[in-house]
């Protein structure tokens, strides 16, 4: 029996045991600790009861402290926190409103729309990002910012405004956000163009050459498709934007049927929140739900070398995935955990860092879009060690492709997955994002679905996922700040070994 079975068995026993009154009593202590800044995971494990759309007052806050003293979890002392399921209402305007209860000290909200660089062409590249800036700079921004943390972000498939605040301030901030949406103010466009131009120039060197490694990576993965464009656009393109362009964009993408609002934290009355949102955004255009262009096929193998003379180089090794549609999503997440996962004992950190001294900063990231995505390993390395670092990355990937990890190593990845989910339950902002922008196209898997997948997860499943992923057709390698032809030639030699 693997660790996933042991952990899940303990959780299921608690949730199926029927001791609701005991759970409720323990939840009071957990909620009090959380609101006083004491993470529940420090001394015990929190398990939140997951429900459907209807949530009664008895189940909404149940958090069971089932640490080692209770003896209900595996001897390793971990369990999967049951992330609370969201309540979702679709208002008559088409606006989706999701709420998720969590006994956190703060509340959080996200307002997301289906837009971003994927919906743009060469003439409108960067327009979504510009509109996000203009919405963020609205005359009500000061009040929104003073009420908590107010932020804006543009991605490839979403534009999101987010808030974090004290729970009692949430109603007023929702009403203010509704005012921003009902009456957007684009009069300051000329000034904001200058701000965005500064932001764009951070990704270019002194000669005007794009050097941001992740923008280069997207350009190589997706070529002429909109997904290959920089999210912020180009300086020349941004200078052309006029108020009419921004207004036309908002009319096309800012409709309620194209939007989703997610609220997380100690919000126990979904209907009340949905009514508040409906009243605050009343009168906004319904619009229509926007659908992105299909993703292009993989275009690898590709090696992109960017010359330079900085003391550190960016090395990215990336593969295409099927994003949210990928049947191996959970296995890929465990594969990423095995390679990095933030643990110094993970394969890449151990080999490239502590054992060989080839890199200090490294990470493995999965970008999941609605129908495609990327699995990327990134490291900061010295120019002289670039070829050796790329060779070692290939060795680690081939190792997982050819030889199954031990059950103990896989258990370690599962333990880190359990911790990440528990940590997310401690944060209203993470929960709001999970059920907001991260669920614009497809609802994220529930804890039960994740647990069911981990029950079936085996070392051989990791090998199968690695064999599907690590194919030359989906491979893109980017190396920036490469100092000369000799190292460039060595990189080409190592890259060819990937394609065999």
Describe the structure.
The protein has 500 residues and is an alpha+beta fold. It folds into three domains: 3-70, no CATH class; 87-280, Metalloenzyme, LuxS/M16 peptidase-like (Cytochrome Bc1 Complex, Chain A, domain 1), CATH 3.30.830.10; 302-404 and 458-499, Metalloenzyme, LuxS/M16 peptidase-like (Cytochrome Bc1 Complex, Chain A, domain 1, 2-Layer Sandwich). The protein is 42% helix and 17% strand. Helix 11 (329-339) crosses helix 17. It is globular. Mean pLDDT is 81; it is low at 1-77.
What is the fold's blueprint, element by element?
Blueprint: H1 3-16, H2 20-35, E1 46-48, E2 63-65, E3 87-90, E4 96-101, E5 107-113, H3 127-136, H4 141-146, E6 148-154, E7 159-165, H5 170-182, H6 189-201, H7 213-222, H8 235-240, H9 243-253, E8 259-265, H10 270-280, E9 302-307, E10 313-321, H11 329-339, H12 347-355, E11 361-368, E12 373-381, H13 386-402, H14 407-425, H15 428-434, H16 447-456, H17 459-469, E13 475-482, H18 485-499
Parallel strand pairs: 4-8, 9-13
Antiparallel strand pairs: 1-2, 3-4, 5-7, 5-8, 6-7, 10-12, 10-13, 11-12
Helix pairs in contact: 3-9, 5-10, 11-14, 11-17, 12-13, 13-17, 13-18
Number of strands: 13
Radius of gyration: 24 Å
**Largest sheet data:** 6 strands, mixed
Q: Give the low-confidence spans.
A: 1-77
Q: Which keywords apply here?
A:
single chain, 500 residues, alpha+beta, Cytochrome Bc1 Complex, Chain A, domain 1, 3 domains, six-stranded mixed beta sheet, five-stranded mixed beta sheet, 42% helix, 17% strand, disordered N terminus
